[in-house]
Amino acid sequence: MKKTLIFHLIANAHLDPVWLWDWREGLNEGIITSRTILNLMDETKDLTCIRGEAAIYQHIERFDPHTFRRIQRYVEQGRWDVVGGTYVQPDMNLPATETLLRHFVRSKKYFKERFGREVKVAWAADAFGHSAGWPEIFHAAEITGFAFTRPFAAQLPLSKPAFWWIGAGGARVMGYRPLLGSYTLERCGIEERLDLTLKAALKSDLDNVGVFYGLGNHGGGPTRKHIRQIEAWAQRHPEITVTHSGLHRLFEALYDEIRRKGDDFLPAFEGELNFCLRGCYASMAKLKFAYRETEALLMQTERTSATVQAALKKVPPDLNAAWDGLLFNTFHDILPGSSIERACDDQLAWLGGVRHQCRETGATALNTLAENVNTTVPPVKDDHPSSVAFLVWNPHPYEYNGPLELEASLDYRPIEGYTSDEVPVVVRDPDGQPLAIQKAATEHGLWQNMALRNRVVFPAKLPALGWSVFTMGWEEGAKTTKVSHGASAPKDGVIDNNLYRVTAKKGNSGIKVFYKNKPVFGPEGMALITVDDPWGSWGGMGEQPASLDLSTVRYRWQITDVMVLEKGPMRAALWIKMKGGTSQIEQIISLFGGRDAVDFSTRVLWNERSARLKLVMPAGDQAEFEVPGGMVRRGPLGEVPGGRWVRVRQNDRNFIFASNALYAFDCRKKTLRATVCRASRYASDFGNNADEGAWRPTVDKGELRFNYGISCGDNDPWRLADELEQPPTAILTAPHPGRLPRTGSFAAIMPAALRLLALKPAENKDGWILRAQNYDGKTISAASLYWMGKRYSLGRIQPWQIATWRLTKLKTLWRIAPASALEK
Fold first, then answer.
1. Could you report the per-residue pLDDT of 195-246, keeping only the tens digit for each?
2. How far is CA 803 from the centre of its chain?
């Protein structure tokens, strides 16, 4: 009999703040559960427990300060273990890298202030798999241990419960998954779990064994019966050291054990800890789309306002409430789409509030900038209306070079004697030179034969994290620049920009795309199919093979209408309507002269049950996926999570798909397929055919809108996705002189492989924080930052490393110094 086994009994109360209930019930249950556990700890002098999630602690502190003080006392005694370091327990495959890191930035600071503890152990009780990039995120967040339960051993075998999880850049964290079972337990069964754990532990060579127990889902935690049975079991097994413990104690003991046995005693695991509950990668598209829009807007707003306020020496805005709202919505039963309809409605409203705050904050920043910029317009004579001035902001740390659209009223009443197409509109660049433009349809359909408003599109170059002033006006007799012939519509159903040609024909099932006269998708083109999807919110709960390859086609969509909307010469656009069953989709496909991408603006009217809509792209089945913390390569594996872009490199071909909304993909038979939406039931774990439970509402019925782009050249997938999510922002502003020039840049980072994650005010208000990640497989030997007119060295950055710097003003210069991502 092995004599050195130590069982670490880890009591926990898994509490979903949103799931089969709304956030009000969930957070209040946090108070009830904590009181119950504290009372039990008062009775049982060696009982310990763990609790994560700053959102729950904040709620307790606000509404039950007495209970909060009791928690603080047990933390001081070492019996209440504050773990996780996150705001909630987030989904770990879908949010952006910076969003996941911001969980730790905000929450670890809160835990340190309230409890005097540095949280070193992450805790993912119930998240549905974990991205391959997490070791880099954990390293930046100063996390040394990661405990989790999913995927279970049946989905993801591991040779030992403890292991080194190693990221693509070499960062590592000690992972731990219990020998058996999950985070929770029924009211009875603790003795059986201990028996089975002992049996498994005797076959293992680890001395320290974690045993998780406690009621959980809607709170709960350890019970008196659990404690009595643990005591009885320990008395029957004196050869086993049974101790009430916590996650920090468990990992401290494991690290001590490894120091004795050697670093290579633990196996190394590289890659992603996936997959499970794969339906969640696509469930509840309406919430996922709203979340993605909110996430991108918040990051853009923070970066924009921080840059402008730093340049103009203004007090930065407080976006903490917005960040807390976004972080709460990453919870692993909110963003994955596995909650009830009422809870989903609440979370959509919450995300809408965050977006409104972002738009107010962004408008304030750009109006403040505009007040200081020379926005004068060309002079006019007599009573002729003056031009309109636009300040256009580029939110990216590199020069934007692409299409720009502006729309304005050129007078306060419709211009007599002209239609909108006839009025002589002139757009001038920051130097006052007229630009080649193409008129486009306005957003309204009022008074089409009158010149009320005009919309134009033209190629623009915008400086990195900077601005340019353009004017747009009604100018009689002005000399205009000749429009280049970069795009055309040579015949019905065809658009072309000399790189790409897109064709569509009524009655066909595929949209055909050609790159340099070669078909991108083969003879069938890019298609849409509706496939049977009888699985619940989580998909196949047991990874049933039929749930991983959803390919039983219910409808092959057909093109029912095609119309050329724009014929060039700067941009050509094609409107295509398709139908499949009782659903339809409208897409506006655009080609811009010289642009190495095809742009799609998509509107889906979804009306199905027990089905899934897939975009089918026969471009290859060996793909690179952007994921939190990095990138992962996959072949055919069934339904998988993906991020903002997917790149297929196969048979000397390079194909990129990027979107501002989608997360779910699969590769099969030389084809990449993207799930748009799925018609499951709310919070349902059982299979349904389309006719079952007709009274239960179906997720995502109605209109869904999103954008995507494809590229076959040397386009940078990160930039293609960035510009889809965060396009340049234009604001109409009053004309006036200003101390700042008509175009300028505040910041840029080099080289291109260094991707900006955050530019924000420091949490302690001491300067500004810059964070970036090296998204390349090679070391950057000399990264640099252009900041407020000067260039600064950022030093050497390892592959996939997340690096942080603090920017502080020293009289006329800035000090740029490496910093902890936690902003200590």
1. 999 999 999 999 999 999 999 988 999 999 999 999 999 999 999 999 999 9
2. 19
What does the DSSP 8-state code read for residue 559?
Answer: E
**Cβ within 8 Å of residue 212, ≥6 positions away:** 10, 12, 149, 178, 181, 182, 183, 184, 185
- How many whole angstroms separate alpha carbon 208 and alpha carbon 241? 10
CA–CA dist 481, 761 (Å, integer): 43
Give the integer Cα–Cα distance in Å for 228 and 237: 14
Alpha-helix residue ranges (DSSP H) falling in 549-617: none
pLDDT band at 3 (very low <50, low <70, confident <90, very high): low
Which tokens belong to 479?
A: 């000399």
Asked if residue 2 has pLDDT above 60, the reply is no
Question: In the numeric block, which tokens belong to residue 6?
Answer: 């130590």
Backbone angles phi, psi at 39, to 5 degrees: -60, -40
Q: Which one, of 155, 143, 227, lies nearest residue 185 by Cα? A: 227
Task: Give the integer Cα–Cα distance in Å for 106 and 324.
Answer: 9
CA–CA separation, 820 and 824 (whole Å): 6
User: pLDDT category, 714, cuts 50, 70, 90?
Assistant: confident
Query: Residue for token digits 């026969």?
Result: 618
Confirm whether 6-273 and 488-714 share one CATH topology. Answer: no
List the domain boundaries for the chain: 6-273, 488-714, 746-824
Helix/strand/coil for 536: strand
- The mean pLDDT value of the chain amounts to 95
Asked whether the predicted pLDDT for residue 174 surpasses 90, the reply is yes
Residue type, 258: I
Query: Strand 208-213 relative to strand 6-11: parallel, antiparallel, unpaired?
Result: parallel
Residues 126-158, buried b or exposed e (16+ Cβ, 10 A)?
Answer: bbbbbbbbbbbbbbbbbbbbbbbbbbbeeebee
Instruction: Summarize pLDDT for 428-458 with one digit per residue, the tens.
Output: 999 999 999 999 999 988 887 788 899 999 9
pLDDT confidence band for 695 (50 / 70 / 90): confident
Query: Which amino acid makes up residue 390?
Result: F
Q: Specify whether the CB–CB gap between 629 and 132 falls below 8 A.
A: yes
Q: pTM value?
A: 0.97
Report in angstroms the alpha-carbon separations of 324 from 99, 197, 747: 10, 39, 27
Burial profile 420-433: b = 16 or more Cβ within 10 angstroms, e = fewer: beebebbbbbbeee
pLDDT digits (tens, 9 = 90+) for 466-516: 999 999 999 998 877 777 779 999 999 999 999 999 999 999 999 999 999
- Burial of 224 per CB tally in 10 Å (0-12, 13-18, 19+): exposed
Q: Is the peptide bond before 331 cis (omega within 30 degrees of 0)?
A: no
Partners of residue 425 on adjacent β-strands: 474
CA-wise closest residue to 646 among 659, 660, 629:
659
Tokens representing residue 514 in the block: 């050609």
Q: What is the CATH number of domain 6-273?
A: 3.20.110.10
The fold of 488-714 is: Beta-galactosidase; Chain A, domain 5 (2.70.98)
To the nearest 10 degrees (0 to 180), the angle between helices 320-328 and 285-312 is: 160
